[in-house]
Write a sequence for this structure.
């Protein structure tokens, strides 16, 4: 499956499209909200490993429904080392089946289910990790990139 066409705004107001992913491997990781404990741990983990991804020519993008301003504050506060994209109206998340009914503390609500996609240079989704466990994400991604799983 190819990643669908998209145009998402980053924290600087620049638009990122699927066409900018052509010719390189990319990671798109979808997360529920900026500045929550697990989402912060995930963004910090990607930042701590950003040199590994850069050395392999892999671009990392975090995606949530939060606003540009929230993304800017999140990046500044936690020194995030990559672009965060605004999935306004959860359009891309819905197309990928990532925006789902979730249950938390006995309440049901629609939201992004933590998901990571490895996108190949031809825009094919090489690997999809659903319901990501943050503490295991780097090992899972590197194993997939190295062809171990």
């Amino acid at each position: 499956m190819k990643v669908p066409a998209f145009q998402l705004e980053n924290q600087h107001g620049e638009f990122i499209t699927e066409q900018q992913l052509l010719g390189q491997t990319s990671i798109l990781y979808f997360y529920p909200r900026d500045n929550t404990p697990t989402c912060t741990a995930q963004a910090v983990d990607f930042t701590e490993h950003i040199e590994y991804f850069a050395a392999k020519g892999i671009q990392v993008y975090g995606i949530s429904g939060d606003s540009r301003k929230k993304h800017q504050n999140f990046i500044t506060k936690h020194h995030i080392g990559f672009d965060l994209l605004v999935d306004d109206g959860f359009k891309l998340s819905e197309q990928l089946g990532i925006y789902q009914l979730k249950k938390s503390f006995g309440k049901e609500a629609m939201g992004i289910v933590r998901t990571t996609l490895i996108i190949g240079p031809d825009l094919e989704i090489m690997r999809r990790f659903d319901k990501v466990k943050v503490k295991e994400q780097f090992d899972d991604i590197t194993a997939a990139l190295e062809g171990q799983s």
Notes: The first strand starts at residue 7 and ends at 10.
